[in-house]
Design brief:
Order of helices and strands: EHEHEHEHEHEE
Shape: globular
Number of strands: 7
Structural class: alpha/beta
Number of domains: 1
CATH topology: Rossmann fold
């Protein structure tokens, strides 16, 4: 039996976290949430398949990313960084720290599909975990 994929969303904006959670669940993905910059501890405890991490929260997201990539239990988990700014230096820094991707808010609906594609096997352009 296949394991249900899990995404950890870390952002200090509860509305954004809840929206991502609701949309990811439409693809049959479990979602852990963090609005207090506890992403490292949560990731080490729950071993998500993907982390979506906002740069601007109570702790700098770049520092959190560096910490995630330092720990053996979280270093291989792909991390998508979120930012309200299209800043090329920030983007470059995130990739240098090990980010898998960088998205600018507000993002379009295809972002949810991108997240799902990173954690779900797809057949015929639909996730096999899709809820009916």
């Amino acid at each position: 039996m296949l394991r249900t994929p899990t995404i950890l969303v870390s952002d200090d904006e509860p509305l954004l976290v809840n929206a991502l959670k609701r949309e990811a669940r439409r693809f049959g993905i479990d979602v852990l949430t963090d609005t207090k910059s506890n992403v490292v501890e949560i990731a080490r405890e729950h071993h998500p398949d993907l982390i979506v991490l906002d740069i601007h929260q109570s702790r700098d997201g770049r520092d959190l990313l560096a910490e995630l990539k330092k720990h053996p239990e979280t270093r291989d988990v792909p991390v998508i960084m979120l930012s309200a700014n299209e800043d090329q230096f920030m983007r470059h820094t995130c990739f240098e720290l090990g980010a898998a991707d960088y998205e600018v808010k507000p993002f379009d609906p295809s972002f949810i599909r991108k997240m799902a594609r990173m954690v779900c096997p797809f057949e015929d352009d639909e996730p096999i975990f899709a809820m009916h």
